[in-house]
């Protein structure tokens, strides 16, 4: 009974206190926007949680686990797969809203860049500084092939993929970059694009439509048939990703390799091949010799084959014909 009376007395005193507080509140005070102060340590935790949820959402779009394993980071191949998946998802969701599409894609790109290994980040930063978002994404999607074929012309298919993405993002400098990138194409693609620029340069929509309709060269227009050429490049890229270069010793002894590479250099110079062709041929030779066991009788046959593989459109006539 005594406990009940104490509870009742406490409730009455609390009601009186609240009534006095209500009375003492100035009537002119606007309380609708009144918010409680969040302590600093709780505020930083709230921001961290919001940032974490945002990163989890981005990772879900890209199809990667969150968080990325510490000390690891995404390899080039993993980064390309994640970005390709994210690009498809974002395009499906925001295809009719260029601003949201651009913001989301930019957010995903920089998250994935930060999740990549240090060496991959350095390659991306070196090759995409002061470039539009469309170029950055296009570069990452084709990064291994770009590195392998550094110094070679830009493939027409890669050029068209960049243009399509630039149009989806509605980038303001599309025409300027189109003119610049056209100079990096091979003679076949460059001729078509320059003709389109001279004819439809005043209408960006018509120009881009004509450029997108340019047929990708196959057969006699390129060094190799398009299908087999891409398969060859993909195989070389896969060889590099497998890490066999450090896991196995070359099947060609060092003294034999030195003489073979020297012969390849003299052959390249005597036939007027470009220096990039020689370097790529030497790289192919090293990778192949670490992958396959080459008999001494076939050293020069393999050397001729890798020089042929490294040839460009301008060098269609092999020196051994």
From TrEMBL:
Annotated ranges, domain Cyclin N-terminal: 247-318
List the residue ranges forming a coiled coil, or say none. none
What InterPro entries does this protein's entry cite?
Answer: Cyclin-like_sf, Cyclin_N
The record's listing under SUPFAM superfamilies reads: Cyclin-like (SSF47954)
Q: Which superkingdom does the taxonomy of this entry point to?
A: Eukaryota
| Record protein name field | Putative mitotic cyclin
Q: What is the lineage of its organism?
A: Eukaryota, Discoba, Euglenozoa, Kinetoplastea, Metakinetoplastina
């Amino acid at each position: 009974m005594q406990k009940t009376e104490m509870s009742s007395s406490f409730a009455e005193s609390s009601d009186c206190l609240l009534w006095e507080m209500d009375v003492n509140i100035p009537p002119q005070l606007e309380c609708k926007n009144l918010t409680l102060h969040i302590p600093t340590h709780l505020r930083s935790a709230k921001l961290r949680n919001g940032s974490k949820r945002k990163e989890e959402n981005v990772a879900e779009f890209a199809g990667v686990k969150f968080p990325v394993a510490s000390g690891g980071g995404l390899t080039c191949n993993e980064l390309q797969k994640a970005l390709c998946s994210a690009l498809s998802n974002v395009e499906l969701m925001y295809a009719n809203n260029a601003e949201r599409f651009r913001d989301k894609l930019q957010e995903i790109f920089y998250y994935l860049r930060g999740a990549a290994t240090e060496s991959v980040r350095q390659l991306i930063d070196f090759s995409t500084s002061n470039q539009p978002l469309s170029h950055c994404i296009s570069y990452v999607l084709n990064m291994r092939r770009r590195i392998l074929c550094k110094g070679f012309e830009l493939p027409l298919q890669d050029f068209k993929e960049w243009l399509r993405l630039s149009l989806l993002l509605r980038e303001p400098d599309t025409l300027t970059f189109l003119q610049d990138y056209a100079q990096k194409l091979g003679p076949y693609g460059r001729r078509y694009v320059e003709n389109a620029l001279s004819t439809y340069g005043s209408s960006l929509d018509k120009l881009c439509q004509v450029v997108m309709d340019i047929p990708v060269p196959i057969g006699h227009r390129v060094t190799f048939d398009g299908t087999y050429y891409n398969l060859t490049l993909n195989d070389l890229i896969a060889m590099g990703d497998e890490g066999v270069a450090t896991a196995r010793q070359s099947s060609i002894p060092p003294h034999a390799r030195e003489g073979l590479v020297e012969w390849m250099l003299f052959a390249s110079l005597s036939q007027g091949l470009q220096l990039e062709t020689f370097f790529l041929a030497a790289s192919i030779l090293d990778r192949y010799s670490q992958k396959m066991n080459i008999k001494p009788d076939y050293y020069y046959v393999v050397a001729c084959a890798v020089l042929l593989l490294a040839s460009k459109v301008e060098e269609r006539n092999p020196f051994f014909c």
